[in-house]
Amino acid sequence: MRFLIPLVALTLAIPAQAQLVIAHRGASGERPEHTLAAYERAIDAGADFIEPDLVVTKDLVLVARHENELADSTDVASRAEFADRRRTKEIEGRRVSGWFAEDFTLAELRTLRAKERLGTLRPASARYDGLYQVPTFAEIVALVRAKEAETGRRVGLYPELKHPAFLLQQGIDVVDLLVAAVRKEGLDGKQAPLFIQSFEVAPLQRLDKLLDARLVQLVAADGGPADEPGMAYTDMITPSGLAAIAAYADAVGADTRLVVGANGAATPLVEQAKAAGLQVHAWTLRKENAFLPPALRRGTAEGGVGDYAAAWGILAAAGVDAVFTDDPALAVPLRRSARP
C-alpha cells in the first residue's frame, strides 16, 4: 500500500462484511516465503487460504517459488555445483540473469535451501535461512489436508501461475500441469476451497474451459498482461473491461492502489467489479513501514512495524472481499466475523 492516506481515513469503520484472509506466500512476514513452515504458520494463525506461486522444474513438477529465478529465495548462488547453470533469459520483456527452476530437476532443486528474500527488513525471518526445502504443490496440498484433520477447519489453496506464456515458449504447458494436479487432488469444482490466479488472460480463459474452479484475474497499477501486449490493466478495470473479465473469471485480484486512491478514498473499482458480478481481492498488506504510507508508519526504521490495523480497516471499508497479507496472525483478529 503506497498511497497517501489522510488522517480522516484512519477513522473509517470496518463494515460487517468479513474479508477472507489470504496468506501471501504463507506467513511470509514470519518465515521464508513459500516454505511448508510459512504455510503451516499461516494455517495455525487462522488464514482462510494459503497462496503458493507455482513454477515448474525441468522434469515437469509444480513447485512453489515467487519467481522461476531462484537466487533471491534460495542459496543456489552459493552452490559451486550449479555455477554453470547461470543463464540470462528474456521474461516478459525483461532480461533476467540467474538460476531458473525450469533448468533444474526436482532432485536437484531438493538440494537447495530457502532463504528470506527481504532479509534486511525481516532479520527475524532470516534466522530460518537454510532450514527448508522448496516444496512441491502436492506436498502443499498434503500439508493442508493434514492441518484440516488436525484443526477441523477448512483451509483453501490460492495458487498463482507464474509466467505461463514464457514457460509455454520453453515447451512447458503449466496450465495443463495444473489442471492434472487439481483433478488428481480432487479439487475440481466450484465448491472446492480453491482459487486460481494469473496476471495473464489466456491461461485463465483456458482454465475456465478445462476446470470447474474459481478463477482470479490479477491486475496491477501499471503495465498489462504479458500475453496481451496491447492491453493495459487500467483498461481492464473499466466497466467494459470488468464485464469482459467476468466472462471467464470470478474475481479481480487488484493492487491496493487500484482499490484506494492517493486521497484515502475508495476508487470505483469495488463497486464496478461487483456490478459486473466479480469479487475484489486486494494485494498486498504488509506490516513493515517500508510498505505502508507515511501516515501509517511508526518510527523511522524501514523494517519497523507500522499501523497495520488502520491499513486493514481502510481496505475493509472499501468493501473488498479478501485481502492478501504477509501477516495473517495480525489480520485474522481484525475481522468482525468469519466467512464460510
UniProtKB/TrEMBL annotation:
Residues 19-335 form the GP-PDE domain. GO terms for molecular function: glycerophosphodiester phosphodiesterase activity. Keywords: Glycerol metabolism, Hydrolase, Signal. It catalyses: a sn-glycero-3-phosphodiester + H2O = an alcohol + sn-glycerol 3-phosphate + H(+). One of its GO terms (cellular component) is periplasmic space. Its EC number is 3.1.4.46. It comes from the Bacteria. InterPro entries: GP_PDE_dom, PLC-like_Pdiesterase_TIM-brl. It is an enzyme of class 3 (hydrolase). One of its GO terms (biological process) is glycerol metabolic process. PROSITE patterns: GP_PDE (PS51704). The keyword Transit peptide does not apply. Transmembrane segments: none annotated. Gene3D superfamilies: Phosphatidylinositol (PI) phosphodiesterase. Pfam families: GDPD. Residues 1-18 form the signal peptide. Belongs to the glycerophosphoryl diester phosphodiesterase family. This is glycerophosphodiester phosphodiesterase. It comes from Tsuneonella aeria. The lineage of its organism: Bacteria, Pseudomonadati, Pseudomonadota, Alphaproteobacteria, Sphingomonadales.
